[in-house]
Amino acid sequence: MVQLVKRELYGGAITMDLPADMIDASMFRQIPDTQEVYVSKENPDYSIIIDLLECVPATTLYNALDEHMQEITRLNGATLKTTKMLSQRDTTTNSNINSSSNSETIVPAFAGVRVFEQQVAKFGKQQDVESVVIAIGLVRLPSPANSDILITVNNHVTSSSTATLETLTATLVHSLSVVDPALFVA
């Protein structure tokens, strides 16, 4: 199993356990304020991205996962035809998100994990198409946060197994802790 360490995200407003060998990509490239990006020291094809997003209109876990997967597919320049679903599961019952600032527990509307494989052009070069396994973990925070937290784990097909990525992503979802709910106040 991968060794995990607790990391502060978004200036310490959120904490999450991440693999120990991951480094913060903001140390060497610009990252949007709504994202945290970690890359592996050992494997250049392995990354974890945490996005704070507005809730997509979907009202169920699987519809929300569909919408986020479609957006990732679009951003990757892939198509749903070349996207193969590998697994998905609902983790809502195991996903109470602690808010340590006021000892309240934020109960997500839903949380889940989906793993899929895509053919992706590396760096946008159509001649360099690779198979990538992508696992997404979604946590929907209800009002007053009204946010989707999307955790995306990317890895090259030859270097990862579906079960390993699904388990890791579920672990990341479960380790998420909101330290400062003010992060979600406009």
UniProtKB/TrEMBL annotation:
<comment type="similarity">
    <text>Belongs to the MOG1 family.</text>
</comment>
<keyword id="KW-0813">Transport</keyword>
<dbReference type="InterPro" id="IPR007681">
    <property type="entry name" value="Mog1"/>
</dbReference>
<dbReference type="GO" id="GO:0005634">
    <property type="term" value="C:nucleus"/>
</dbReference>
<dbReference type="InterPro" id="IPR016123">
    <property type="entry name" value="Mog1/PsbP_a/b/a-sand"/>
</dbReference>
<dbReference type="GO" id="GO:0006606">
    <property type="term" value="P:protein import into nucleus"/>
</dbReference>
<keyword id="KW-0653">Protein transport</keyword>
<dbReference type="GO" id="GO:0005085">
    <property type="term" value="F:guanyl-nucleotide exchange factor activity"/>
</dbReference>
<protein>
    <submittedName>
        <fullName>Multicopy suppressor of ts gsp1</fullName>
    </submittedName>
</protein>
<dbReference type="Pfam" id="PF04603">
    <property type="entry name" value="Mog1"/>
</dbReference>
<dbReference type="GO" id="GO:0031267">
    <property type="term" value="F:small GTPase binding"/>
</dbReference>
